[in-house]
Amino acid sequence: MKKLKYVLLGALISAVVSTSVVIPTLSWLSSLSDEVVNSFEGGEVKIKMDESPVDNKGKKTTGNRVKENNYKFVAGSELDKDPTPTVLKESIPSYIFVSLENVNSDVFSTNVDESKWLKVCEKDGKTLYAYNKIVDASEAAGDVVLDPLFTQVKVSEALTSEKVAELKASDPKQFIKTQTFAIQSEVIDKNVAIRQAVDQFGLTGATVTYVNIAAAD
Question: Which helix (H) or strand (E) holds 157?
Answer without folding.
Answer: none
